[in-house]
Structures are given as C-alpha cells and as structure tokens.
C-alpha cells in the first residue's frame, strides 16, 4: 500500500486570521473561502499541493464543553517539506512578517531521513515544522537512493 497525506484539520478560534497567516506565510491558495463566508459550506481550506489540504474548523464545528479542554491536545505539530531554496525564502518571509522562529535551523529525522527544520507557530499556537532534505529537488521531493 502507498499512502499520501490527504488533509489536516485545525480547530480555529479565528478562521479568517489563521487563513490569512497560511496564505501570507506559505503562499497557499484558499479553497471554498467565498462559500464559507456566504455560509454555504462549514469551513474553508488551503491547498498545500495537488494531494493535500488543511481544513480550518471554526468553533461551531468543535467548540463544546466536551471538546474545548482538549482542543490542541491531539496535535503536537505538523511538518511540511520544501526545497532548500524555498526554505531560505520562507525564513526570510517569516522575518519580514515578524513571525518568531521558536527553534532551528536544526537537524531532525523525518519521512525521508534527516533534514534541516525550523519551528514556528500560527496565530492559534499550532506548532509548524518546515524542513528541507539535502537530497531533495527544488520542490521538496526526495530523491531516495537504495
């Protein structure tokens, strides 16, 4: 079996603020945004690549007495990989947007071996790791050797 990451769901207190962050910092393209604003769909998303999206759930979908105390409890962080040039560009963008890098660059192990990572948070305190692998092409796709 071969698996691809389909989507990540983030519970959000302020969907518009978080959506703006992901579009400005990463350059992701929003999906279903106008339908969300019109009230015809329950949440918007951003597209990471042709196979993967991040959904942003507003409080109406998760904020109840039962879920409130564990809102961030199940997600430690998520990691996106990019090419080395894009990694450098993202670091420059984070500085320009005054987004604090909490850790890194540091070596960390991941799906394709050891890479160089930085860690920072979105406006709702979700921890994001972005990394590049030295053996990856400019899109962040790894060229695995046997």
Structural summary, described in words:
By secondary structure, the chain is α/β, with parallel strands linked by helices. The chain folds into 2 domains: 1-66, 2,3-Dihydroxybiphenyl 1,2-Dioxygenase, domain 1 (Roll); 75-146, 2,3-Dihydroxybiphenyl 1,2-Dioxygenase, domain 1. The protein has 5 helices and 8 strands; from the N terminus they run E-H-E-H-E-E-H-H-E-H-E-E-E. It has helices at residues 15-26, 33-38, 59-62, 65-68, 84-96, and strands at 7-11, 29-31, 45-49, 52-57, 78-81, 101-110, 113-121, 127-132. Strands 1-4-3-2 form a 4-stranded mixed beta sheet. It is globular, with a radius of gyration of 16 Å. The two termini are 19 Å apart. Residues 142-146 have low confidence and may be disordered.
What's this model, at a glance?
The protein is built from 5 helices and 8 strands, in the order βαβαββααβαβββ. The protein is α/β, with parallel strands linked by helices and 146 residues long.
Give me the side-by-side strand order of the main sheet.
1-4-3-2
Helix content, binned percent:
25-40%
Domains (count): 2
The CATH superfamily of the largest domain is 2,3-Dihydroxybiphenyl 1,2-Dioxygenase, domain 1
Count the DSSP helices.
Answer: 5
Q: Strand percentage, roughly? A: 25-35%
Mean pLDDT: 86
Q: Mind telling me which CATH architecture of the largest domain this is?
A: Roll
């Amino acid at each position: 079996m071969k698996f691809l990451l389909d989507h990540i769901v983030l519970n959000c207190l302020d969907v518009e603020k978080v959506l703006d962050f992901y579009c400005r910092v990463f350059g992701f393209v929003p999906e279903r945004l106008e339908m969300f604003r019109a009230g015809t769909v329950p949440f918007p998303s951003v597209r990471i690549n042709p196979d993967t999206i991040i959904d942003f759930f507003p409080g109406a979908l998760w904020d109840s007495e039962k879920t409130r105390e564990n809102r961030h409890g199940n997600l430690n962080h998520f990691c996106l990989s990019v090419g080395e040039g894009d990694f450098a560009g993202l670091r420059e963008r984070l500085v320009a947007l005054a987004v604090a890098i909490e850790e890194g660059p540091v070596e960390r192990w991941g799906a394709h071996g050891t890479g160089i990572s930085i860690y920072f948070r979105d406006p709702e305190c979700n921890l994001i790791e972005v990394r590049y692998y030295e053996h990856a092409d400019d899109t962040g796709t790894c060229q695995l050797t046997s």
